[in-house]
Amino acid sequence: MRIHVVDHPLVAHKLTTLRDKRTDSPTFRRLADELVTLLAYEATRDVRTEQVDIETPVTATTGVRLSHPRPMVVPILRAGLGMLDGMVRLLPTAEVGFMGMVRNEETYEAHTYATRMPDDLSGRQVYVVDPMLATGGTLVAAIQELIKRGADDVTAICLLAAPEGVAVMEKALAGTPVTVVTAAVDERLNEDRYIVPGLGDAGDRMYGTAG
């Protein structure tokens, strides 16, 4: 597994405002959207392309376009929805799948309650979006499901990561073609499994605390 921390002043600037507890939900959603687009730019450096012949107003030339099968973006519900627009803005021809996952607050294990994507992902590059890589359980379960369906190149895009979650993913997904792209790897998890210093519960900060 490869982890890429995007070191850019605009990324750091937007992340700082996201961390601030005074940032309201509308501002949080807007900044998360902007930050995802910056992360997606780095995450798609190796997106598969093919050559194509075109005519410009001046002459014939050769360019590139995204290869088929088209890449797929998979937000993990619910907080991952706040990252979807930023991804499809950069990859407008990508297909979108969905995974609904919830964490048991006692065992911290992730359980899948809904999926909407093809049964066969053979040959697909898949971009999983989830704001927080905390314990790693949710992303491991999601990526294992994608690989079971045939995905052969998976990139997870997260606003923040904890070293404990990174270690869990490296162990559970050893030998699989997985990349994690994030704005920062923070200090640690606290006793409630929240990232420190973190930014709190990303879903609640995006959408409020409605159950």
Automatic annotation (TrEMBL):
Description of how activity is regulated: Allosterically activated by GTP.
Sequence ranges assigned to domain Phosphoribosyltransferase in this UniProt record: 5-209
UniProt pathway annotation: Pyrimidine metabolism; UMP biosynthesis via salvage pathway; UMP from uracil: step 1/1
EC number: 2.4.2.9
Reactions that this protein is recorded to catalyse: UMP + diphosphate = 5-phospho-alpha-D-ribose 1-diphosphate + uracil
Amino acids binding 5-phospho-alpha-D-ribose 1-diphosphate: 78, 103, 130-138, 201
Co-factor(s): Mg(2+)
Gene3D superfamilies per record: 3.40.50.2020
Record bears the keyword Signal: no
One matching Pfam family: UPRTase
Keywords of this entry: Allosteric enzyme, Glycosyltransferase, GTP-binding, Magnesium, Nucleotide-binding, Transferase
Cofactor info, note text: Binds 1 Mg(2+) ion per subunit. The magnesium is bound as Mg-PRPP.
Molecular function terms from GO: uracil phosphoribosyltransferase activity
Binding positions (uracil): 195, 200-202
Family (UniProt): Belongs to the UPRTase family.
NCBIfam families: PRK00129.1 (NF001097), upp (TIGR01091)
HAMAP family: Upp_B
Protein's job: Catalyzes the conversion of uracil and 5-phospho-alpha-D-ribose 1-diphosphate (PRPP) to UMP and diphosphate.
Record's protein name: Uracil phosphoribosyltransferase
Organism: Streptomyces siderophoricus
Gene expressing this chain: upp
